[in-house]
Amino acid sequence: MNDSDRLKNIVFQFINPDDNTEIKPLGKGHINDSFKVVSNEKEYVLQRINHHIFKNVPELQQNIFRVTSHIRKKLEAQGVTEIDRKVLTLVPTHDGVLFYKESSGDYWRLMDFISQSKSYDEINPELAYRAGMAFGDFQKMLADLPGDPLFETIPDFHNMEARLETFRQSVKADKAGRLKEVADLVNEIEERAGEMCKPERMHREGRLPKRTNHCDTKVNNILFDENDQVLCVVDLDTVMPGYVLSDFGDFIRTGANTGAEDDKNPDNISVDLAIFEGYARGYLKNAASFLTELEIDHLAFGAKLLTYMQTVRFFTDYIDGDTYYKIAYPDHNLVRTKAQFKLLQSLEENFDEMQRIVLDAARN
Ligand code: GN1
Ligand code: MG
Q1: Which residues contact 4 (CB under 8 A, 6 or more apart)?
Q2: For 20-42, b where at least 16 C-beta lie within 10 A, e where not — what string?
């Protein structure tokens, strides 16, 4: 069976076979593979779920189902229009299952495509404000999710202590023999390790709560409509319990960087404080009412932490010989590591100003 027939066969596990079905690659995720499907005049997103990373696909899909059903109910109660563009809709298989497992062992899911939507890799302060409101609202809507806490789709996903432990094991093993050239960077990571594990300590002391987080608040995980209004938050694989400072920080890491995540030119990279401020104001407009003082006080720190964490994660993968993230060229993970580290340095230089902006936004 060729690739196109294989994909069609998968799609027809979910929807009725139609001769007029087109399937094309979509998006730029680092983990899953995505395709846009057009069949019988309807549009869908087909995704192969990376089950080496998301090891329990049934629980993962159940999380997404719970989250989207809960949000849908809230939107209905608020009388919101065009709900199908404002929350993701999973399409079950003909047997009523939320995923399809191929005989090869690959897992697939299908969702409705959100029509006339776009995402940005680069935004302006006004769009950042709207994105901030959207992620604040997302956390607020999920605050009263009924039932057990969500399943941790990747255990210790944003746990800095665990990430550092893995990093240190990789450094020790030096599997790909890449360590010699990067010893300085290992020292930079270690110098900051104590500070960066602070949230885990505050959590153990009972001071910092876990809430339902998105855990992948990249700027391009927000869909906007034709008038640049927010439609919907997407990429729900990692929605799970976490610290709000993580979600705040990951948006700043991706949305307030004047360069790219994998910029080869460090001079392009710095924090854009106007975008930082837009996001902080939008986020706090919806979230200030349920956050504690300690949480608000650590939002700006979250930007440093998530950038540090991403530096460590790309670096670990480079040292391991590129086993986790998709790469486009041989030293891609090292370029990403250096680019994230440059952003971290800029965040450190601007930290006092960022802290002032957050505290000011929380008061207004
Ligand atoms: C991965 O696949 P994507 O781009 O949604 C990663 C995130 C990282 C991000 C770095 C499950 O997200 O945690 O922050 O790359 N997702 C997973 O760009 O590891
Ligand atoms: Mg993701």
Answers
A1: 23
A2: ebebeeeeebebbbbbebebeee
Quote the CA–CA distance of 363 and 140 in Å, as a whole number: 19
Considering the domain architecture, whether residues 83 and 159 belong to the same structural domain is answered as: no
pLDDT in tens, 302-354: 999 999 999 999 999 999 999 999 999 999 999 999 999 999 999 999 999 99
Place of tokens 């549009």: 43
Domain-embedded: residue 119: no
Pick the atom of ligand 1 nearest to 237's CA.
Answer: 11
Largest CA distance in the chain: 61
Distance from Cα 216 to the centre of ligand 1, integer Å: 7
End-of-domain residue from the set 81, 112, 143: 112
The CATH number of residue 90's host domain is 3.30.200.20
Residue nearest to atom 9 of ligand 1 (CA): 30
Last residue of a domain, one of 59, 81, 112: 112
Distance 31 CA to ligand 1 centre (A): 7
- Owning domain of residue 304: 125-363
Residues 32 and 165 in one domain: no
Which residues lie below 8 Å from residue 132, measured CB to CB, with a gap of 6+? 251, 278, 279, 280, 281, 282, 283, 284, 285, 286
User: Percent helix, strand and coil across the chain, each rounded to 5?
Assistant: 50, 15, 40
Q: In this structure, are residues 131 and 251 in contact, taking their beta carbons and an 8 Å threshold?
A: yes
In this prediction the pTM is: 0.96
- CA nearest ligand 1 atom 5, residue: 29
Residues at CB less than 6 angstroms from ligand 1: 29-31, 53, 216, 235, 238, 261, 310
Residue closest via CA to ligand 1's atom 18 equals 30
Nearest to 36 by CA among 67, 7, 63, 9: 7
pLDDT, tens digit (0-9, with 9 covering 90-100), for 186-217: 999 999 999 999 999 999 999 999 999 999 99
CATH code of the domain containing 225: 3.90.1200.10
